[in-house]
């Protein structure tokens, strides 16, 4: 980022003017006491103390400093609307003091409230606001408010004022959080600026870097004079937007660059890179003026060492690097090119070059070495050949006329022989080198190892050695030196060893492959395939396959084996890919739950697909707030959020809520304006044909009737359908996914409200089909080739693949004649084919079962409970099977069909009614009899208790009866008559 910015944006370290440490140490106690005395005092005194200590960074570590900031935060407004009197001057003074101390992040609450105070005091002065806020106390809300002010004032500002404000908001210290430059008001103003001056154009190019607006700015630029930093910004824009239409601008940039008396190497290289990207579209060779600029820089580059050269070269676009390096190589002496190659091969991490830049640099130096090869001394030729072989870059041996050099020079080094083996020296060259082998004495261990690899590989490629070469190859000191060399080893060897037995292949570890000194890490004998584990195969500087890897693999291939390279990075990528996939799945699940909980419509969910939701994005509160808006306003708010959000925003939810509030305010103002004009302020639009349709009248619709309808509208959980009636029918679609245009059959009319013109229906939801029983494998449940159960030992650790899962019971093939089984714990998820590591918990030979348990789970009482639970489950299964058989027999009985079923049902109903009537009659008769009996008993009790007088008294009563005209009573005595009554 730093190289794309002008000089004023770079971090410049001030020159030291002496050591003030002694003075500061003497004054530290008094300064600490000065700050501590203000605790609990007035804000004015505390601000004055901070101003006095603004030049002492040690004050940030004092406890009293944090206490003062905490007390000051209570005296500033909590939001922009809160009015706090008496802080106008203190606000500006405190802001300046904190800015000098660099204490903007010590107390976030004070910074937020101080920003509110600044907005109140400087609400009308944008320039002062920018000056106060830049790099100090601008939180997200304050920055958003500044963006709004700039957008409102965009039309009335001059070009210089607008560009200056936008450049301040785009300051790197703001972290790219400002979105004012991408608003419609500002973009409209920028597109109407016309011809731009040099500084204004450079600032706009920085502001809109990486956006399509850069092309418009480049098209509107004239040919203004610019400084070197401004030219570097222009060159960077040209490199990112290379086009033939910018040719004149690139030539003007090169002209101004050539006219500058002094050039900063880094900025000048950036300018050259941008110019070349544009001119290379039509020109195959650099412009002469471009070559002149490079020549002006050659003295600076030529004096740099290898690491400095790599650092400078990394600043240049890779497209230009080969041309630039080859041009500079013409100015550099041949030994310097060799020196750079050796440094790059031995120390590829020198400088800060990226992978692409480093590869381009290596290729450029290789091309330079090819041009200077004939002029190199034999020692430099050997050094360059060895370095290029390490980098995996060939073609150098032929360019340097290797046969002629070997014929004229009496001794070849081990490094040269190794380079010949890597890049295939000719038979003549090897014959000349073999003649010089006796002179190879006093070799180091590294040289002995290289010589062994070179001679062994050549013997495989061509034919076995004879004479001095064979004697030298049989020397045990060479093998010992080669074995003692440390080589990078794969960190995934143990993981591979665990996986090999599961592959079912016959393999051999550390296999000897013919006369090759390299042993195959894994050899699949039946397939003639070698599996080579490597931490990496490419040279980090060139990006090509390293020479040692080429030599090893070529020797194996010459012996008739295919080589499969397995890099550690592949393992890491698989693990990381699995981790990312799982994280993405969990994130998507949480995202769906949040959207469902917030009642976000499906149509809006598509707009939110690229928006983070959850802990790292918009929370549930903001989503619910968004769902309360009408759908058109929801889409507008989401689109504005996507256009304005930046990665540096600390609270995306607050950002969205701020946009929602603004949209609500705009909608309310629009509604009031429409209402003032006598127009409807409804947000939802009425269909052109109205809400009614031409169809059946609602009066003709009966409850229970079945309808067919097509979905016409969906709002939250409510669905409306066109069912051929004059009004759409509706139902609540909970836990259902409904789309516009979807057709529903068998809609049952639940309710018809003629008063409100409302028809409620119920969709027919199909019941889920029960899962069928597990199928028996074609080969049966037993494995004849497996280990007998009698040979299994309880407590043995085993591993195997899952073969079947039913509910929470899992069966695992552990290599026995029958699968072992266990119960999954809650939350555990397995599928058929997964590999699990278990422990044998129990073997029941009578019932022919093997119970397993996860590793680390103890037996004992848990084993007994598992056995009891297993037997209980078996009893339940047997009972279920018996009940199933009974149901099967009953279902096999023929069921009556046709009209006879109706007759039988009617007869049964009649019989039941008759029985009920008879029972009722019997009950009534019994009640009547009981009542009669009770009455008789009562009467008897009363008659029996009367006193029976003498006969005379009875005769008097008889006389009275005669006088009253009553008839004579006959039929017995008085007692019989009494009893008759």
From TrEMBL:
What range(s) does the S1 motif domain occupy?
795-855
What are the start and end residues of every segment in region (Disordered)? 677-697, 765-794
Q: Name one GO molecular function term.
A: nucleic acid binding
Biased segments, Basic and acidic residues type: 686-697
UniProt keyword list = Membrane, Transmembrane, Transmembrane helix
Record-linked PROSITE patterns: S1
TM annotation in the entry? 906-939
Protein name, UniProt field = S1 motif domain-containing protein
**Organism listed in the record:** Effrenium voratum
